[in-house]
């Protein structure tokens, strides 16, 4: 789906639901009792220890990373990490965004919240602008 200029996340929109199902790596910064088996079926104990890295859906990570004391530290999804940014800055005709994911722009609108360098938003705007320019 092409990102519309007026895209707003919507709890009831199927595209938004599918975009936030994308698993994103995160590291737990506090101990979490009794959720080890539920969030990580291969866990040995019932608790999640500090430093445990898991891939969780974006909708869950948003809730765990909020508040005065966040439970997780979020890593950007692989398609928005620095190694891929140079590829994404290339000519839009040379990059197949479907290889990065069907909901590249939608997931990016959530991932930019966790980007300390503020580069994900720039990449989304850059690619969206150039792609729409070539489609006209």
UniProtKB/TrEMBL annotation:
GO terms for cellular component: GINS complex. It comes from the Eukaryota. Its main location: nucleus. Gene3D superfamilies: 1.20.58.2050. Residues 12-65 form the DNA replication complex GINS protein PSF3 N-terminal domain. InterPro entries: GINS_bundle-like_dom_sf (IPR036224), GINS_Psf3 (IPR010492), GINS_Psf3_sf (IPR038437), PSF3_N (IPR055221). Keywords: DNA replication, Nucleus. It is found in: Nucleus. It holds the Pfam family PSF3_N. Belongs to the GINS3/PSF3 family. The GINS complex plays an essential role in the initiation of DNA replication. Component of the GINS complex. This is DNA replication complex GINS protein PSF3. It comes from Popillia japonica (Japanese beetle).
């Amino acid at each position: 789906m092409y990102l519309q200029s007026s895209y707003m996340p919507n709890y009831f929109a199927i595209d938004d639901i599918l975009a936030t199902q994308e698993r994103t790596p995160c590291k737990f910064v506090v101990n979490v009792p009794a959720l080890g088996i539920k969030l990580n079926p291969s866990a040995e104990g019932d608790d999640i220890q500090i430093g445990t890295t898991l891939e969780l859906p974006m909708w869950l990570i948003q809730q765990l990373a909020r508040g005065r004391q966040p439970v997780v530290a979020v890593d950007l999804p692989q398609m928005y990490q620095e190694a891929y940014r140079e590829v994404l800055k290339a000519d839009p005709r040379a990059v197949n965004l479907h290889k990065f994911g069907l909901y590249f722009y939608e997931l990016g609108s959530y991932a930019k919240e966790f980007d300390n360098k503020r580069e994900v938003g720039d990449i989304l705007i850059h690619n969206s602008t150039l792609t729409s320019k070539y489609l006209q």
